Amino acid sequence: MSRQKIILWALVLSCLASFTVLLSMGSSTYREMPPIPAQVVSETGTLLFTEQQIQDGQMAWRSMGGHQLGSIWGHGSYVAPDWSADWLHRELMAWLSIRADQQYGLGYDQLSIDQQAGLQALLKRDIRTNRYDAKTGTLTVSDTRLAAIQQVQQHYVALFGDAPEMQPLRKQYAMKEGTLPDLTRRQNLTSFIFWSAWATATDRPDQSGVSYTNNWPHEPLVDNTPTSSITVWSILSVVVLIFGVAALAWYHSTLKHDPLPTPAKEDPIFSHQPTPSQKAVGKYFLTAIGLFMLQIVLGGITAHYAVEGQQFYGIPLSEILPYSLTRTWHTQLAVFWIATLWLATGLYIAPALSGGREPKWQKLGVNLLWVALLIVVLGSMAGEWFAVQQVLDIDISYWFGHQGHEYIDLGRFWQMLLMVGLLIWLALVTAAIRPALKQENDHKPVIWLLYISVVAIGLFYGAGLMMGKHTNLAMAEYWRWWVVHLWVEGFFETFATAVIALMFVRLGLIRARSANSAVLFATLIFLSGGIIGTAHHWYFTGTPTSVLAWGSIFSALEVVPLALIGFEAYEQYRLRNASSWMSNYKWAIMFFVATAFWNMFGAGMLGFLINPPISLYYVQGLNTTAAHGHGAFMGVYGMLGIGLMLFCLMGLSKGRGWNHNLLKWAFWSMNIGLMAMLVMSLLPVGIIQFFAAIDSGYWFARSPEVLQSELVRQFVWLRVPGDILFAIGGMFIAMFLFGMVKASWSAKRAKKLATA
């Protein structure tokens, strides 16, 4: 059996085994997730909350922006608190204060150390004991806890309304006035947040000392500290990483690389005229860069809210564009513009692989898909504005407004419409690439791998539809990360690897046999860790402790290929001088090189900083996560999308209006700006919070005492130079595209005049 077939079979078996494990984890999560009680009552029979109120509270949370205003279980935005950690700490302090007054007639702070220790022991027993009765669906709380819950509930009802005494705190949290104007919604919201906090510190029925969220967040008052599983599997993940890097380095050293072929004297792409559907793809690139520029503007506004809270340089912008909305649009547009570039690449490359042949009506399909894309983008953004402004009914908000889950924010109707669009894209690519799939040639394995990734991209977004209105948050997080991790980080990555290889093969710069082996092996290594590695997002979201083992080991394997990605960068970099005409593709290749660098730094180093359970236990939802997110999402997928766009544009434009200087300035401005943003602001703030989370508890790391401290505010302001430089790079890309469009119009006008 040939080496290629061995790798192919290993890839198939690896994927089957990995998805079996992934589905098994989902089944275990469903059985062991934190239960939603039918009712929450006190020992004396006082009714606090019902199941319906908890579910309605979750819907209220989703309608106001959900993950985009603070976080739950560590997932969400970074300026407002993690509500589950914040509620837990406030409830604990209220409990201690109430019991101190009852027993000693003094405030808790006035007690002796021994008296405080005694109350803390009683507190721990009260909070950690699981009093949920599965037979009746009743959760019983002590009368002391009842009084504490009611105190915290009053605080939250005032905070999410427009109570004047809470205005300074709302400003620090970047909350708009009257976040939830309706009193009933605010009261229901408190029931949902209480439930999310209850799950973090209450022991599982069968595991003493381990909560439903594996003792997250760090809260010393009730011994919410790392479990033995968190520590052990973190150490083993480092061992696996070291072994994996060593094994891959050894494997790489044994390879015999085929010499590069002699390039053609002229650019092979210039000899082919774009098909009608390929020409229609041009508008996708213009749309994507337009969305990119809008995302940059919204990112600047969102970042500035961390300083002024409700204003933008004195302008009361939060009344119209509150933080929860600008962050929603900022994160959603990142997915939209990058996905648009990649989808456009698929529509462009498919006819090229089939020798310039395309089915009838292909151009019409491409144009209709573009219109559908605009409808989804604009419609979902409008719906989110109405939802955050609390204009919509709670059910209408779910369908047409805001679903509240980060990266799946758009209303369910728009989500379904996007899914239909992806299926149309799959059909268009399938129709165009079908002749290439039937051809016998040297690079057929890579073409098939490309097509399989296209099918996966078209279908796997549907995982986001698996959660409904009242899905338990543990299961909602399970399916959400199928989209964010598998759809974006998994199959788009496979798609991009295959596309780049095919582009270099088509240009005659690498041998097809070499491309086949390299792409299949790279995909095998990436997906072997990447599929099960999705579990590192689920450590503390109400999943079983077994998820810690799977996630820690396989997320470490995700980093293994990134550790040696410099070899790939060098191989691509040296191709830029393979022939004189390769100068046309210099900056496209440079963006691929940048992708390799950010894969190593943003996805690899910053990713592993937060991936081991013991690390993520303290830093989940801190600015270390934002540093990894920006470095990986923009650095890897954004830079890669721009590189793919430039390759396609060279084929469309034939070099007309190609401005190397603008691309040079765009490249360096964006990469230096992104790096400055990370090392001068996001990473330092995250490290400051890291220390705070270890020393005082997670709630403190997310509190105004830390985030609004003078030191942190200085680092937030230090983000401005990087933001500006990055925005300038985006402007250069936009100017480059404008120059190409202008040159194309001039060429068409000259042709008409010549034939007139």
TrEMBL record:
Transmembrane segment boundaries: 230-251, 284-307, 334-354, 366-388, 413-433, 445-464, 484-505, 517-541, 547-567, 587-610, 630-652, 672-694, 724-745
GO cellular component, one term: membrane
The entry's keywords: Membrane, Transmembrane, Transmembrane helix
Annotated Nitric oxide reductase subunit B cytochrome c-like domain residues: 37-218
Transmembrane helix found in the keyword field: yes
Keyword Cell membrane included in the entry's annotation: no
PANTHER family, per database record: CYTOCHROME B SUBUNIT OF NITRIC OXIDE REDUCTASE, CYTOCHROME C OXIDASE SUBUNIT 1
Protein name: Nitric oxide reductase, NorZ apoprotein
